[in-house]
Amino acid sequence: MRILIVEDSDAVSKILKHLIIQELAYEVDVAPDYQSAIELLKTNKYFVVVADLNLPDAPNGEIVRAVLTEHQTPCIVLTGNLDSAQRKNLLKLGIVDYILKENRFSYQYVVKLIARLNRNRDVKVLVADDSVVSRKFVRALLEQHLFQVLEANDGAEALQVLEKEQGIQLLITDYNMPNIDGFELILRVRENFSREDLAIIGLSNDNNESLSARFIKNGANDFLQKPFVHEEFHCRVLNTLDSLDMIRRLWEKANKDYLTKAFTRRYFFGQYNRDVKDAKEPSVYSVALLDIDFFKKVNDTYGHDVGDEVLIEFAKRLNQAFGQHFTVARFGGEEFVVAFKGLDAEKSWTLIDKFRQQSYATMINTEAGPLEVSFSGGVAAIDACEGIDSALKHADELLYQAKQAGRNQVKVT
């Protein structure tokens, strides 16, 4: 990732360059004037340009117009002062944002904004509004911040898009829409999407003072009154997504193992209980309990850092093989479990044993060099009457038999 800073103040450019490299590890070029910046823009492709509004050879913001119109590159504007007319002109041009050069926090905000822009490229936003003009305006604002934008002309179409399109993280919905209005849309969306899955911002040009409270009580994360200024819209969107990121990080800390990123034992049991509760009728279910062979020897011979590398790689392989359709969890130490919802013990054993052969045939690269690592396992079906604890106990007994029989094998009954 490459960033261009256009700034005639050596002190400011050094601070910005240092912060961007230190916190984001991006490549940074610096141009002290308009002409130098244009030459760099001709020969390099930049992710974003951070430009001073008043340069020695271009005092009237010419660099901003060149970056946006001639090079179609996102632009963040730095300035010592900004009057109302300048602000309106910059916003019409389509800048990402403007930042006043007041203190160190201003430069840290620039770095935070660049990082957010990079993340935005993977964020899908759905805009639901029956007004084409309003919808296109919101879309243009979002695209300035590099979001992937989808549109729906009412609540009913929005529900169809959410069902069809995977990975939408933010829904921005108007209140007054035909068929399904904003309130009903949010209520229906919240039946299937939690606040950890999808954030919602409500919009309305209605002057009813209770609208914002009603939106939020119905499940929206935030509300914005039309007409709104560009800065407020961007701040609300970015703050909402930052909160969503924070909620997800907290969820991951609570539900994923800190080392291997596999699910925790606690999550495993919770997911099983949810599966049973949501099932309309008793479903086929089986579990595989796996244990890395001679793992203590790896730690004793090569050290715990190498042991950690083995655990991380083993969990990664398990997730790649089974994580998309089944639940993979670390039970503790070198022991892992895979829950096969919808498969009986024999089918689960077939999958696990094939994985065992493939994994054993592929060495694990570590600081101590490539290591040959095997595992033993036991696979047991879950009886609807006896439950998960009984199945895990049975799988553990089978795992012990596999160890006793020479390791590097999986037992099933």
TrEMBL record:
It comes from the Bacteria. GO terms for molecular function: diguanylate cyclase activity. Keywords: Phosphoprotein. One of its GO terms (biological process) is phosphorelay signal transduction system. The modification 4-aspartylphosphate is found at residues 52, 174. Its EC number is 2.7.7.65. It catalyses: 2 GTP = 3',3'-c-di-GMP + 2 diphosphate. Signal peptide: none annotated. It holds the Pfam family GGDEF. Residues 2-116, 124-241 form the Response regulatory domain. SMART domains: GGDEF (SM00267), REC (SM00448). Residues 283-413 form the GGDEF domain. Its cofactor is Mg(2+). One of its GO terms (cellular component) is plasma membrane. NCBIfam families: GGDEF. This is diguanylate cyclase. It comes from Shewanella maritima.
